[in-house]
């Protein structure tokens, strides 16, 4: 069996790498999509008997440099390197599709893996490129400088009105992961368990939800994204004006709020007074009450949620998906 290095491209704070706002109001980060596929791919390859290691930061908080990713894979002595990405460059049109890359002058096994991965990915996920060819050559760093055979897959385009519907669907991410795993197994042996269904067991959440279950429609989706519904229901629970907007937040705090979405969070230089909802949150979690959600407030929220058994992540002051999910669980327990 083989040692497979898996790399989810970028980090969740990498500027610019996200879905086109016009097509996805949440502007979902590329790393989030890459991670979803990489995660499932790792699980499937393990089930097929391979050893897998992630080359990126699986929490997404650090965008590990390309040099370190490659160094790590070379030092580990991986047999194959697969880098998972989502593409852009079609400017909101209907173009796009799945593409698998090798580097110029690559090893023969890279090419073998490229065609196998492309073939199976298309078979499972169906997002055939409408460009000339889904198997392409480019000297991307991670496939050029790795010692072992290597491919990079661009699962779909984040600025394609056709692709966006697919790539945002978690069930589709699993399908393409299954295709990639089957392609790798075709070249590096092994059989993916559960082949055929394409719907495998999702990774368990770090902390289990506590809530009682009243009418389902009143509940918030525990999806890790703080959008309008999350704001509205937080406002309902904390008894502030319900308008769906966390207003008056200083733009400099954006970096602590990777999963707070434009439209639901108002970042403005004219942020005097902050937000009534944030003040209520700060009161609740024992943070300084100033109405601005920054690092200290997020840390206090994380500590408070952890004490309630709703959060199992780091107290790092960054409101990533795990923190938002924990908050959503809390809100649901009060709705
Ligand atoms: Zn990318």
How would you characterize this protein structure?
The chain is an alpha/beta fold. The protein folds into two domains: 3-188, Zn-dependent exopeptidases (Aminopeptidase, 3-Layer(aba) Sandwich), CATH 3.40.630.40; 228-334, no CATH class. 37% of the residues lie in helices and 12% in strands. The chain is built from ten helices and eight strands. Strands 2-1-3-6-4-5 form a six-stranded mixed beta sheet. It has a two-stranded parallel sheet with strand order 7-8. The chain is elongated. It starts with a strand and ends with a helix. The structure holds zinc ion.
Q: What is the strand and helix layout of this fold?
A:
Blueprint: E1 3-8, H1 30-47, E2 51-54, H2 66-76, E3 80-87, E4 99-102, H3 108-125, E5 135-137, H4 141-144, E6 150-157, H5 163-167, H6 170-188, H7 228-238, E7 246-249, E8 265-267, H8 276-285, H9 295-307, H10 321-334
Parallel strand pairs: 1-2, 1-3, 3-6, 4-5, 7-8
Antiparallel strand pairs: 4-6
Helix pairs in contact: 1-6, 3-6, 7-10
The structure holds zinc ion.
């Amino acid at each position: 069996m083989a040692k497979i290095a898996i790399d989810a491209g970028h980090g969740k704070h990498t500027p610019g790498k996200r879905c086109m706002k016009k097509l996805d109001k949440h502007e979902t980060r590329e790393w989030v999509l890459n991670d979803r596929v990489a995660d499932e791919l790792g699980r499937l390859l393990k089930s097929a008997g391979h050893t897998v290691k992630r080359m990126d930061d699986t929490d997404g908080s650090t965008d590990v440099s390309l040099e370190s990713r490659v160094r790590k894979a070379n030092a580990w002595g991986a047999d194959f390197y697969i880098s998972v990405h989502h593409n852009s460059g079609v400017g909101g049109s209907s173009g796009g599709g799945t593409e698998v890359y090798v580097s110029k002058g690559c090893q023969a096994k890279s090419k073998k893996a490229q065609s196998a991965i492309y073939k199976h990915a298309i078979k499972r996920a169906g997002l055939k490129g409408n460009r000339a060819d889904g198997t392409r050559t480019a000297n991307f760093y991670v496939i050029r400088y790795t010692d072992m055979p290597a491919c990079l897959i661009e699962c779909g385009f984040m600025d394609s009105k056709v692709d966006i519907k697919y790539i945002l669907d978690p069930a589709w991410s699993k399908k393409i992961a299954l295709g990639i795993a089957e392609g790798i197994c075709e070249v590096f042996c092994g059989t993916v368990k559960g082949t055929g269904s394409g719907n495998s067991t999702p990774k368990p959440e770090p902390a289990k939800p506590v809530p009682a279950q009243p009418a389902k429609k009143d509940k918030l989706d525990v999806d890790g994204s703080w959008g309008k519904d999350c704001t509205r229901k937080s406002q309902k629970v904390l008894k502030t004006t319900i308008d769906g907007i966390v207003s008056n937040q200083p733009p400099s705090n954006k970096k602590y709020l990777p999963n707070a979405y434009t439209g639901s969070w108002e970042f403005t230089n004219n942020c005097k007074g902050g937000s009534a909802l944030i003040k209520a949150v700060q009161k609740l979690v024992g943070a300084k009450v100033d109405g601005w959600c920054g690092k200290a407030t997020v840390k206090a929220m994380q500590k408070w949620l952890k004490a309630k058994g709703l959060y199992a992540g780091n107290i790092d002051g960054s409101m990533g998906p795990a923190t938002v999910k924990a908050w959503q669980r809390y809100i649901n327990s009060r709705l």
